Amino acid sequence: MRKTFILLLFIIPLAAVSAKGQSGATPATMDQPVRWGDAVLHQPPEWYRSTAARTLADTVLQFQSPQGAWPKNTDLSVRPHSPAEMPAPDSEVANTIDNGATTLPMQFLARVIQADGDDKYRQSFNRGLAYLFAAQYPNGGWPQFYPLRAGYYSHITFNDDAMVNVLTLLRDIGAGRAPYSFVDRTRRSRARAAVAKGIEIILRTQIKQNGKLTAWCAQYDERTFEPAWARNYEPPSLSGEESAGIVRFLIEIDHPSRQIRAAIKGALEWFRAAAINGIRLEEFTGPDGRRDRRVVPDPTAPLLWARFYELGTNRPIFLGRDRVFRYAFSEIEYERRNGYSYYGTWPAALLTQDLTK
Question: Which of 122, 188, 231, 336 is catalytic?
Fold first, then answer.
């Protein structure tokens, strides 16, 4: 997309980095089933007119909740055999935007609608859109679950790109881009208004240090807008991963305001300062025969970023399920070392991207 501003970047040599969200899925042949996941968005246009695509779309419709959302961590390509197999509206997976829930089904259905035009898919899509509109706070943020639930679930949630996924979808709907050209003008207008409010809260919650804009926390209190806890190992902090997703979204805005340009510039400068040199995260087999992870010195390794940086000090921090701040990856328990991404290359592509176009 066209950019109307120029940022001078220090180009950092990196090893090849795969962008978050890209799919290496092999396109299916006509009437070949596709496994649920990002692959459903990367098929040839003619596939979305196939029997296989319609069969999948019909199954996706069955999983839509009465509120209009879809569950997370659920294979939407497997048809439920009975109502008992459907997630209850108040279950831990239902009515959420976490882990691509709701946004991925809507992206897929839009492709089927564009190819097929069946009104039942359009009605389902519109119910999903109404859900996203209803879930947005007046302040512009989105909670992880809606209807609201007690606890961190109601925080404004950037975690795992939840809110950015919604904003990206609504941005494309508001612009009438393919495959969303079927969306009527009234809904497009509402989508643009929702995106504008979402950008406002992004700019409002960017953390400043000594008067300088830096990055974002993964979640914020929906009333005070202060960085907030989520799970025990997800503390108030500066987030290397979630901030990269936010910046990626901001960079794609046409005709960005001065405030948006400043937000991008501040975040990129923070990414450069927060980059970690000279270490590599590797897997190894421990004395007990289990696969494990550790950090080892490696002067040739590509730059890494921590998932969490301590507020005020910018030190990488690591927490296990005991909620204790630690400053060495090796000090957290085995289960969390191997069950969560504490290091990554998330902003690497942003720092090598040509932003002068």
Answer: 231
